[in-house]
Input
Amino acid sequence: MKVLIIGAAGQLGVDVARAFDGCEVHCADLADTPIALDITDYEAVRLLVGNLAPDCVINTSAFHNVPKCEEKPAMAYAVNATAVQRLAAVCHEAGARLVHISTDYVFGYGGTRPYAEEDPPAPLSTYGASKLAGEHLIAAECPDHCIVRSSGLYGHAPCRAKGGKNFVQTMLHLAATRPEVKVVTDEILTPTYTVALAKQIRVIAEKAEPGLYHATCNGQCSWHEFARAIFEETNTDVTLKEATSADFPSPVKRPSYSVLENKHLQAQGLDIMPPWREGLREYLPVNMAGELLNHTL
Ligand SMILES: NC(=O)c1ccc[n+]([C@@H]2O[C@H](COP(=O)([O-])OP(=O)(O)OC[C@H]3O[C@@H](n4cnc5c(N)ncnc54)[C@H](OP(=O)(O)O)[C@@H]3O)[C@@H](O)[C@H]2O)c1
Output
């Protein structure tokens, strides 16, 4: 299979490229990949996909720094919606399947049980709204699409949009530099390890019916519970205090509950995502060896 990954220098993109081991993989991003591509440059996208003729295009690129999306809504819609619509049209023309990564932030207030793919979205932020617009536009342009919503990503490559450190690294850094750490109990999600998600994306690209998929690790926790698990798994001795989102005022609205049920994957017998704590256990040894033990945090 010939695969084109757009966003391949990003946190998830790096692991997606590795997950397609054995395939002909082409990596594109704004920078730091063999192919330099701005997804908003329609002509460049059309030429690349047309000339390469991939079997599958995987788009992990996004403008997804949530506060910056509020400041620059036109940019958010340009990258997350309009460019994605054009990419979808080009994929359809070229006969390529489009696998596109979306987000739990398409959901809003009031959730108390995991959201299935059929549940109505209600984004609270420009980021969530622009990603939802991208989903609708893909569905309209490219019948052979798989839209994959995920949540709370952390991996070995830095999340470029969020300035480098992921939540696990931030918690370990805070624990190493402060006597106590305060983390919110009132935001519930499913932390998702990018290596596990990347393997799931390959299964989706190769085997899933076209459509919308939720793909996160299994289970749920608050950020506070996630922090506790990180400290337990690393035997980190720190005082962990409870906080609420009111303790960290922000102009950006985030869902208080954004757990996704991998319902469509389960229905097709394709859900290979591990429980979130197992994902954390898989991630930590590599991270600890590479970063913590070298005191680079
Ligand atoms: N991180 C999370 O917690 C999370 C949660 C749910 C869903 N998601 C979704 O998961 C996907 C991957 O996220 P990630 O964590 O891997 O983010 P990331 O590390 O920021 O990777 C995104 C990549 O997209 C590139 N990009 C941005 N604008 C572009 C453009 N105009 N043309 C081409 N490439 C562009 C970025 O390049 P530059 O860095 O050079 O700008 C970056 O390399 C995104 O679609 C995001 O919406 C993320």
The first helix runs from residue 11 to 19.
